[in-house]
Amino acid sequence: MAQDLLTIGEVAHRSGLAVSAIRHYESLGLLASTRTGGNQRRFARSALRRIAVVQAAQRVGLSLAEIGEAFAAFPPDHAPTKRDWVRLGRRWGPRLDARIAQLEQVRDGLALCVGCGCLSMRQCAIYNPGDVLAGEGAGPRRIFPRDAGPGRER
């Protein structure tokens, strides 16, 4: 069994993360380690799969807090299984769908800007003369009219 355990340096190397990031994930409960007699961390190989899930979720805009909430459903030394992936997908699906819609909205808005060259300020999605949209909240009100802003609940 000892040969199935990895040092923190090996986990960092295999995952592409800094050792400090591995420690941070552990402090958040995203990973679990055991300690040797000399108090050195040892991680099960399954930690690499958990890290891969964390990295994938972060890349699509999920916060470490959201990932931690989802991971709380299974033990910290547990590698996500196919069933876990399905549960995570169901849980994160609506959030990811909203993120996809936002990205498409930005992409399409930028394509319009490139195409028009901002010759029509009355129709421009980002032009805000006299800051008339300030009363509607922070952020790009015309691009995301119903969005409460980054990091805020809708």
From the structure above, extract its key features.
2 domains; 3-stranded antiparallel sheet; mainly alpha; about 5% strand; about 150 residues
Tally the structural domains.
2
Helix content: 40-55%
Structural class, by secondary structure, is: mainly alpha
Alpha carbon gyration radius: 21 Å
What is the strand tally?
3
Helix-strand topology string? EHHEEHHH
Question: What report would you give on this structure?
Answer:
This protein has helices at 8-15, 19-27, 46-59, 64-71, 82-116; strands spanning 5-7, 34-35, 41-44. It is mainly α. The chain is built from five helices and three strands; from the N terminus they run βααββααα. Strand 2 and strand 3 (41-44) form a beta hairpin. Helices cover 48% and strands 6% of the residues. The N and C termini lie far apart (47 Å). It has a three-stranded antiparallel beta sheet. The longest helix is centred in the middle third of the chain and has 35 residues, at 82-116. It folds into two domains: 1-80, Multidrug-efflux Transporter Regulator, Chain: A, Domain 2, CATH 1.10.1660.10; 93-154, no CATH class. Helix 1 packs across helix 2.
